[in-house]
Every structure is written in structure tokens, then in C-alpha cells.
Amino acid sequence: MAIASDSAYADMLAQKKAAPVKGPQPTVTIGGAPAGYAPATTLQPTVTIGGAQAGYKPTTTPNYITGAGIPEAQASSAKTKNPTNAEDNPKKPEDVVVPPPPSGDVTNPKAGTLLRYKVGKAPGSRIPVYADGNGGEFDGEETNNPVNPGSTGFEDNGVITLASNTFANTLALLMGESEAGQPWVEELRGLTQGFINTGSSVDEAINLALREAKAKGTASKFTQRFSAIFKLQDRLNAGETVQVPSIADYIKSEQKLGEVFRAVGLGELATQEMASKILGDANKSVDEATSLISDVFGAIDNAPDALKKDLQTYFPGVDRTSIAKALLLGKEGALELTKKVKSIEQVSAAKSQGVNIDLATGANLVAGGADYGTSLSNFATVKQLERGQELGRMSGIDFTQNEAIASTFQSNAAADEKIRRIKEEEANRFSGRSGRFASQDRAAGLI
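-> C-alpha cells emitted (447 positions)
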């Protein structure tokens, strides 16, 4: 067999390549597609690196403890970076917050990391809040708060120095804002310091400081302001059954008295000096002073002219203010004075009808339910019956003024019987009498 030359072999290969391929041919694929297959929008070979598609950019997982990865928190971070007022600052004043870790790759704080403090249930205590390592948190044990009150606070190893503005604000809560600016407040702050450091509350320390100030003769402005409390304390020490109020209660009593006085047009009596005299010197409570004004003073102030003149005989005063002072500062209590006023009303009602009675009789009528209005007409009847005293003597019947009053006000059976007998005797004696004298007797109700 002849072997083709190199040039002839090359021509044969060229012809074979140019001839069309017939029948099934072997298929070569790359990445799952036939060689040379390149559709415009078909899937391309997938190459993964570390389990993620090429070009994949990881996003930061939101952390709701630190605020990282939360769009709202990131957007507002610039606004609240350096808050200057309470509206911009989301933290509560009493919370001590541990700052979050620097920005960047944020992870949950480790378990046991202190996040912040919150106010405890007991006064002066706090509760630490710790991270649990999983994005949550848990409370620690409640302990005493060594942080000093005030705008900033500082650790002082248990010794508290009261800031003047903080003490004034606390005093305003206990006693009212008007008291927080008084000149004795700074003196009081120094006195309460020692009691605060030994565990007393501010309220307790203030009351203890008042007594220490008196014992040591210090804080004169403070002790003068509350001299009425000392007077009550002295009376209690002497054995009297009096109630000694706290400073806060005393100030509330002053305020209530002022309201009572202003309600009846006695605003000039709504002073600290007058309150000291009423509560301390006269030892009258707010309730008793209120009764004196509403019941006793009101009865005098609103009485008819005739009654008012009679009342002013027993309660002298050039004007309504002086009458109120006399009632409030007198030794008699509200109940006793109320009874006295009502007794005087009976005396005045009797007087207006020409009948004279004393306070004791008036008190008996009041005890029986009589009042000024009904007594005016009743004493008119008593005056008519007084003529029966003379007629009774003519018939040998002793008929007194008290019996006339008892019959009229109380329907006394014995007195009524005497009146019946007097009428009967008078009718028999003058049965034949006619004319002007008989008409007078009939008009008097005696025949």
C-alpha cells in the first residue's frame, strides 16, 4: 500500500473538515450547556464562594439593644447626639445608662454586662439591669442608691451632701412652692444634713431638725416661722391632751384656714401670724376654727338687726373682723360658742315679744328643738298667757312664766291643766259680764 505524501495528507484533512457532518456526533458540554451555546438571557454558570453568590454583600443584623442596624435609630442618632433638653434626651433622669459599644460590627453585650440602673421600689434604692447575652436583659438585686440627688449625682460612699436646689424642690413637694423660697430654708438644709446621713427621710429629718434647732437655739428664722408647733409641744409636755402636728401638716392647716377666711370675706385674717395664734395660742384645730366661722360667726353676721344687736352684747366688736377674732382666739370652743349663740337667739326672740328670759332658759328651749324663727310666734303666745298669772292668783292657782313657756313650747300636761282651770274660773266669775271687759278676756284667749 502506498503511503501518501505529507502534502497529500494535509489536503485530505482539509477536505474532511469542510465536508458536512452526518449522523449523531459526540456532545461536549461546559457548565451544563452544549459547547458554544450562549443565549442572551439564559442562566450562566454559577460560581459560589463560601456558600454565597459572587458579589453578595452581607447586611448588618438589627440589634434592638444597642440600636445598631435599625434605620430609625441611625436616622435619629445625629439629632440626639448631644441633647440639651429633656425633649431631645430619651433617657429618664433617674437612669444611669451604660453607653453602647462603638459602632461597627455590633454584637450583643456579653451576659452579665451592666446596661443601666432603674429606680427601685423602696425610697432611695435602685435596680441594676444586665444583658443576658442573647439580646435581652434581666434585673439584678435591689440595693441602696449611693448616687447623690440633684442634676448630676455622684458617688460619695454613703455620705450625702444635700444640694440646695434639690432640697428646696423636695421642700416644695412637702410644704408647697411658696415655702421653698423662704429665708429659713438654707438654715434648715444645714440642720437636716446630719439626720439624712443617719438614715432619716427628708420629711423625718425636717421635723427632727425643728426640735434640734429649738434645743440649740439656732435657726431663729426657722423656729419663729413654726413657733406654734413649739407652743403645742410645750403644752403636751405639761400634760395637756393636745396634738402636735408635723411641719407639713401645720402648713396644710394654714392653707385651709386661709381658704375658710377668704370664703366669708375675712381675707385679712388669712395670715401666718393669725394662723399661729389660732392653732398655737388658742389650740383650735382647723375643723374647730371652720365651725366657729361657719356656724358662730355666720349666725352673727347674717342675723336680723334686732338679733345682731343682742348677739353683739355678748360678743362685742366694732366690726365683723374683730368679732371673728374674738371667737377664734377665745377660750371657748366651737361647740360651746354655738350653744351660746343659739341661747342668745331665744333671749332675743322673747325680748322682741316683751318676754324676759335668761340664757339658761334659752338653752333649755334650744335643747328642746326651738329655733329663732318659731320662737318669735311662740313667745307672742307666752305673752298672752302671762295675764293668766294674775287671774290664777285671784282663783288661788299659782301659774308661772315657766309654765306658760312649757305649755307653749312643749305642750306640758300640768301647765295645760292649770290654764284650763284658770279659764274655767274666769268664765264662771264673769259669766254675766258683758261689754268691753268680756271682749278683752276673749281676745286674750282666757274665756
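The beta strands are 29-30, 33-34, 48-49, 52-53, 114-119, 125-131, 137-139, 143-144.
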